[in-house]
Amino acid sequence: MSHPAKNEQSEEFEMVATTLFGLEEILAGELQKLGAREVKFLKRAVSFVGDKGFMYKANYWLRTALRVLKPIATFTVSDDKNLYDRVKKVDWKNYLTEADFLAVSTSLSTDIFNHTQYVSQKTKDAIVDQFREQTGKRPSVDLDNPTLRIHVHVEGNVCTLSLDSSGQPLYKRGYRSEVNLAPLNESLAAGMILMSGWEPNRIFIDPMCGAGTLPIEAALIACNIPPGYYRESFGFQKWKDYDQDLFDRIKEGSLQRINEKGFTILGSDVSEIVVRKAKQNVIQAKLEDAVKISAVSFQDFDPPDGNGVVILNPPYGERMNPGDIDALYKSIGDTLKKKYSRYTAWMISSNKEAVKQIGLHASKKITLFNGSLECRFLKYEMYRGTKKGGVQV
Ligand SMILES: C[S@@+](CC[C@H](N)C(=O)[O-])C[C@H]1O[C@@H](n2cnc3c(N)ncnc32)[C@H](O)[C@@H]1O
Hints:
The protein has 393 residues and is an alpha/beta fold. The protein folds into two domains: 13-164, 2-Layer Sandwich (VC0802-like), CATH 3.30.2130; 186-225 and 242-392, Rossmann fold (3-Layer(aba) Sandwich). 30% of the residues lie in helices and 25% in strands.
């Protein structure tokens, strides 16, 4: 059954925020804090209820969401012909005109269809055919810069059609123009920091910071800066029912909450080239006061006295020989034991063999995916002297 778009500002509707594997709980926590109602866990997603203003707010504020989808129709589906017919029953002029540019994406968890592209194509055909039959004209397709993104999700025999209110995925914050070989996805970086339990009154260190993603995300959290602050646009701004005043009010309300207190958020990397890029990204994010980046190896870096959280995203060894990667991980373990006795350490890696060289007991092991690589996000509690004055690890 299809539902027409609801334009009243206070009208509530269900939304789905998608995320990366393992971040569902963190995302649900973010949504609850933001004031979402009826928050429910899904696979790599969280559903919730809110009004149009809340949809804008969710896009602007969620650190661990990839997209905020607004479902407009749910129906059972049996094959491609049936999919085409059901999509055509939705009254698409509620959402777009012949002058619009369309992009359709698909996710599948079903035996009915094998190819996401085929489902996207069928859906697009049904939409443009409806326009052509009714008006003689049709919206165009523009996969890179559409005015409306439609998402199709088929789970078993249930198909959900959604409008994608985010446009470009939300991890594309807009502050990072300079990257090195393996930058972390910004939403993953934010999720790792939120999972680590770090509080801004403690020290934060990323001693292998690459493009600076973790320190910058930590500073956004500390300064209460919305992750959407740097973005040029969101998908919902091109929707027929876009309410600019409402979005302006949400943004103004958010900026008043930015907190400029001093924090100790440090990034460093052994590569001078990479450090230059990280510094450029920090400047682009206007966070020079909150984040300090330096060119020094992890082994030579001296963490400030006090306690805090250190998060490491070391090389995983794809471009290194096994002896070198084992030696690097062994020296990470040795340095943690020697210099970080009052810190909580976290490390993400896909290299299970190299991780064994750390020589510390992980008190937590969380599965996350860095792109397509299955990783463990490991917690090492480093604390000194509870038994016989030795290092307890
Ligand atoms: C996977 S990348 C980190 C990516 C980073 N999280 C980002 O978002 O861009 C690993 C980084 O570790 C750095 N690295 C390797 N060995 C190091 C060492 N001994 N000390 C400090 N940095 C090191 C590399 O230069 C590289 O930038």
